Each structure stands twice: as structure tokens, then as C-alpha cells.
Amino acid sequence: MTTTNTVHAFIVPTTTTTTTNNLNSNRHHRIGNRSSLSKTSLHLLKATTTDTTTTTNTSTYIPRISSQDLQTLSKDGYVVIENFIPSTDNGINLKEALRDDILNLRSKSKFKIAKIGQDTTNKLNEEIRVAETCFLGKEKPELRNVYNQRREQLYDLLEFLRIDLEENSNNGNSIKLDQKLSEFLYAYYPTGGFYRRHRDAVKGSVSYLRQYSLLLYLNTDNYSSDKDGGQLRIHFDSGKDFLPVDETPNYIDINANGGTLVLFESSKFPHEVLNTSSERFAIVGWYNRPMSFTDISSISSNKDGDPVRLIGLAVAAGLVTVGLINILGS
Ligand SMILES: O=C(O)CCC(=O)C(=O)O
Ligand SMILES: [Fe+2]
């Protein structure tokens, strides 16, 4: 397994209130392009944001993925980056702050027992998954009154990743990733939690728009897989939700150490979360390609063709962003 800990970073002015950062517009203001960055050390670049709100003097650090890690993702279909979020940056412990955000949101009943499955078959199934989740997003009404500056920083980090993934050409093809369709959630696994083997992108369902799966672990510094379990197991056999009877298991186990970032092509790898022996904190996400007419017809022909049902599918698959519903509803 290839793991690296090279991290590039972006400094973004800290905002004091919820903003509508337009990070896309920064692309033209960025200092150099990715390929011009040195690959050997931490880079701190000044970002020109288009915040409409006041900014304070303190800066926050946004870790960026290196071109080397992007290449590994293109070549192998997955990449594991340890210490993507460093322990502290400028005295700020982002992992701890986001972990605290999870605990605070749980105490305010913002987490739900996680559901499994795609489309309208989405149902509670404790044999497959024991975890709690809270969907994230600047526009999520349920989170508006629980503002957290570090969560806003996380949104910036996730959006920079989308831009970097989009710019990265995958086997010579650059893949468009629709900002409006990005899906992110906090996942909390209690002691005794797990998520059995599954796929994130299933053909014929809205989840098939998922191009890249993202996992960013927020576990404490003394979390260790030997004592705490909770490894992410990525399978390389040719099976879907099960290992084919005539194949031997072929997988890697990734330790869910705090700060580790995992990215993989959503349609390629079945995966699972091994049993946890202590609480486990993660950010889970998917970068989706834009929905095309082909997708709409393949999803609808697979079902009953009713556009209302397609909207239902989008919601059930977690694609609850207004953008997708607008597309499907139009
Ligand atoms: O928490 C993890 O490591 C993986 C979660 C996952 O696979 C999912 O939510 O689809
Ligand atoms: Fe998954």
C-alpha cells in the first residue's frame, strides 16, 4: 500500500460568520498551478477569497492534496494520505475541533441512525451498519443555527479537494465534478459499530454519479487499530457486495488514524468498516459527476421512469442537494 504524508496547504482568512466563499473564482487567482508546486515541503499559499463578510487577522490553514497523491489516485484508483490534517496548524487542532463539533451536534440530536442501501430500498438494517450520521453542507437548514468556524474551514478544504480532483486528469481524461452534487457527512461509530461490505456507486441508481469516495478520519491521537479496530477494508476481488465463491480474499486494511485521508473511485472498490472497539469519528463524502440525460434515462428505465420517483431516488441515495432536485424536476 502506498501512503504518503506530503501535504500542501492554503491559507484562507478566517471568517467570523457564515459566508458564501466562491472558491471556484479563486482558481484564476491561485499562485501558480499544482504542477509548479514543489513536492517536498509544506507550502503556504495566500488564497484570495471572495468573502463578502469581514475577515479577522488570523489565518486558517487548508491542507491541499499533492500532485503525487493525485497521480497515485489516477494510477491505482485509490490513495491513502496519512497526516493529511496535521496535529496542529498555527495552534489550531482541526481534528479535535471537528470531533468536538460531532459531539456537540450529537448532543443536539442532529445525528441520525445511519441507513443503508440505494434508492428507495434504503432501510434501517443493523446487520449491515451500526453508525450515526449527520449530513453536512453550508445550506443544510438543520445546521444553520449551530455555526462552527472549523466546519466552515472543512467546507473550504473539501471544496479545494474537489477542484484539485477535477483538475487532475484521470488516464488522460479530466473529470468534471459537480459542486452542487457533492455529498458530505459526519459519521460516528459507537463502540461495537461497523459497516459491512458494500459499494458506494451502484449502476442504475443515482449513486452511480459518485466519482470519488472520500474518508477523512478525526480519531484521537491515541486511537490505534490494534486496540480500537475500525479499519477500512478495501477489497480488490472481482465481486460486488460479496466475495465470489471461486476467489480468495484480496484486500488492504487501512487504519483509521486521525488525520488520514482516503480517496478512491467510488464504482471500483467494495469496502467495509471492521468492528470498532471504541468510538470512531469520520468525515465521509462523495464527489459526483454532473448528471446527464443518459444517466436520467438509465436510472429511470431501470425503475418506472417517473421523474418524481427519480427525485425520490436522489433523496434516498443522499443526493438531497437542491441542485440535483432542480435538474430532475426540470
Ligand atoms: O467510515 C468509513 O471508513 C467508511 C464509511 C463508508 O464506507 C460509507 O459511509 O459509505
Ligand atoms: Fe462506503
UniProtKB/TrEMBL annotation:
GO BP field: cellular response to hypoxia
Keyword Metal-binding: yes
UniProt xrefs under PROSITE patterns: FE2OG_OXY
InterPro entries: HIF_prolyl_hydroxylases (IPR051559), Oxoglu/Fe-dep_dioxygenase_dom (IPR005123), Pro_4_hyd_alph (IPR006620), Pro_4_hyd_alph_FE2OG_OXY (IPR044862)
SMART domains per UniProt: P4Hc
Domain Fe2OG dioxygenase: 180-289
Cofactor(s) the protein requires to work: L-ascorbate
Gene Ontology molecular function terms on file: ferrous iron binding; L-ascorbic acid binding; peptidyl-proline dioxygenase activity
Keywords attached to this entry: Dioxygenase, Iron, Metal-binding, Oxidoreductase, Vitamin C
Protein name, per record: Fe2OG dioxygenase domain-containing protein
Record organism: Fragilariopsis cylindrus CCMP1102
